[in-house]
Structures are given as structure tokens and as C-alpha cells.
Amino acid sequence: MLFEKWRNLSENQENEEAEIKFWEEFLKAETSIYNTVLNNKTDLIAGKLVDLAKQYNTSAEFFMGFLDGVNESLESELDLEKIEEDTLISAKISWEKLYFNMVHVEAHWLYNLKGWDDILSEDFRKKTQREFNKSKIVVKEEKIGRNDACPCGSGKKYKKCCGK
Length: 164
Hints:
By secondary structure, the chain is mainly alpha-helical. The chain has helices at residues 2-11, 16-39, 49-55, 60-70, 95-104, 108-111, 122-135; strands at residues 44-48, 88-92. A two-stranded antiparallel sheet has the order 1-2. α1 (2-11) crosses α4 (60-70). It is elongated and about 70 Å long.
């Protein structure tokens, strides 16, 4: 099974050096695929997986890795475990979902690609990044002392109101 091959490749490297080399190669291939998809505004990726891998100048396993990464951003998710090299793929990309997901996994090398300029407005992209950055801000709750005013707004001391 191709998905299993992809998972084994991505998870089982013999040492740290091999793992780094693997991810460098994959991320380079993935970036190339995204560059082509974005620059051509290809929102529908369709064909046999092996042919698509050739079209995007990568291996079937790396293309499977691309599909694994983009799957949550498709209008209709693929059943990755059933895909083989000769399987016909039809993957319709939702640009907004894709951009949102790239920002949320902090894949800056992908969400900063020039191809986005002609697909999503700069305002939308900046707003998506701002909202994500806000979601990472941790607000420390202020501790309420026994003699402080109750936060419920009753005007009583906390110990005589909600702190009972």
C-alpha cells in the first residue's frame, strides 16, 4: 500500500542524519509541487497518481506525502489508505482552507509563496495570519483575592459572594 510506504518513509529513518536528509528532500519536492499548483492556479488535481507524480517531477511516495498534507484542505477528503500508484485521483483544493491550514501548522515556506498573490487577497492572508497569532497569545488570569470586589459585579467582596 502506497500510503503505508509513505508513512514508513516519513517515520522510520535509521538515524537523525538520514531523517534530516529525508525531510529536506521531501520539503523541497513539496514546495515545488505547491509552486506549480499555485502559479498555475490548479485547484483540481486529477489523474493517475503515478502520472501526477511524473507531472510534478517527484516520486509516487512523495506525491502521496503531498496528498497527505493537502487532504484536509480539499473540498472532499480522499481515502488515502486506498490509493495506489494506478488509482485515479480527483482532488479539488479549497484555497481558503489550504491557506488557513498552512498558517496553522506554521508552514511559512508554503504560505509565503508568491503564487498566493493571484489567488487570495493580501487582506485575507494578513487577517488569517493575525487571527492565528492572536490565538497563540496566552492571557494569564488575574487571581482574585478574598477581599477583592467580586467579578460577578454584585459590589460585594469575593469572600462574601461567589467565593463562599
